[in-house]
Design goal:
Blueprint lengths: L13 H22 L9 H12 L6 E7 L2 E10 L3 H23 L2 H9 L1 H10 L1 H19 L5 H17 L5 H25 L1 H7 L4 H6 L10 H21 L8 H21 L6
Antiparallel strand pairs: 1-2
Helix pairs in contact: 1-2, 1-3, 2-3, 3-4, 3-5, 3-6, 5-6, 6-7, 7-8, 8-11, 11-12
Length: about 280
């Protein structure tokens, strides 16, 4: 469930895009610093958002530098190091392991299985460093696995498990109870949006493979091929209401820097992603 939190690049200033990319590259370097080279392969934009949000809640001045990397060995790239880098790196490692497990379970992906085996050590290291996040991810996975075995068709119930995990992860950025509560509400609704967006986006693939999908359990496999209907209406309402709630929570936060970047993601990038997913109805996904 990676890659859904994204920027709207055409609507972003060049300066802000360069800053966003510097945090993305900075997170990559933090992962290498804390967990080695291998986990850099599963770097996500989702955790880059978490990193920038955590930094934006602080008055800290980011450290910028330009260095070469394996992806860009000739041209130097900008890197940002700021508050929250270690936390975002650990969460990226923990969530990446979850993503690899899904690929192994759903697609029988041998490459993902091999990577997951090599991942055990860094996963444990991240879990020891941030046990609350690791425990929340473990609990969410267990709940989701149980509902998958039971073929749960209640969309809200299934999405709640993943949303609760993101609530705890985002709350970990807070400095006091009130801020933790608001961040938790933001994380919960983003998590709900991510889970439902992923499920709706994968509905046709899951129908072909016979994989679990709460939309299919509720509306049947035939509905996956329809260009409209009740399934799409439910998805549109659920995705947009989750985004509205997430933005309402975000508006309560005291953002001290990088507000233009976060606004672009929440008010433009995620809504455009929602439109894209809904327009794919009836097409191969």
């Amino acid at each position: 469930m990676f890659g859904y939190i994204s920027i709207d690049k055409p609507e972003m200033k060049v300066r802000d895009f360069e800053t966003f990319r510097a945090y993305y590259c900075g997170l990559c370097r933090q992962i290498r610093r804390d967990y080695g080279q291998l986990p850099r392969l599963v770097l996500s934009y989702d955790c880059t958002f978490l990193y920038i949000l955590g930094a934006a809640l602080e008055d800290s001045i980011p450290e910028y530098a330009k260095k070469r990397c394996p992806v860009s060995p000739i041209r130097k790239r900008g890197f940002a190091r700021d508050h929250g880098a270690e936390y975002a790196a650990a969460v990226n490692v923990l969530l990446a392991a979850d993503n690899l497990r899904d690929k192994v379970k759903d697609d029988k992906n041998l490459g993902a299985g091999a990577m997951l085996l090599a991942y055990r050590g860094v996963y444990r290291k991240a879990g020891r460093k941030y046990p609350r996040a690791a425990a929340s991810i473990g609990e969410a996975l267990e709940r989701l696995s149980q509902m998958e075995r039971e073929k749960e068709s209640n969309l809200d119930k299934v999405a709640d498990a993943f949303a609760g995990m993101l609530r705890d992860i985002f709350a970990g950025l807070g400095k006091h109870k009130d801020e933790e509560k608001v961040l938790g509400h933001l994380g919960y609704n983003l998590g709900r949006w991510i889970y439902l967006a992923d499920a709706y986006h994968d509905r046709q693939r899951d129908a072909r493979k016979g994989a679990y999908n709460p939309f299919l359990c509720r509306y049947g496999k035939d509905a996956a091929e329809q260009s409209g209907g009740e399934m799409k209406e439910t998805a549109a309402f659920s995705l947009n209401s989750s985004l509205h709630a997430a933005c309402a929570a975000y508006d309560l936060l005291e953002i001290k820097k990088h507000k233009e970047i976060l606004d672009n993601i929440l008010y433009s990038g995620l809504y455009k992603k929602t439109e894209q997913i809904l327009k794919e109805s009836g097409k191969e996904t």
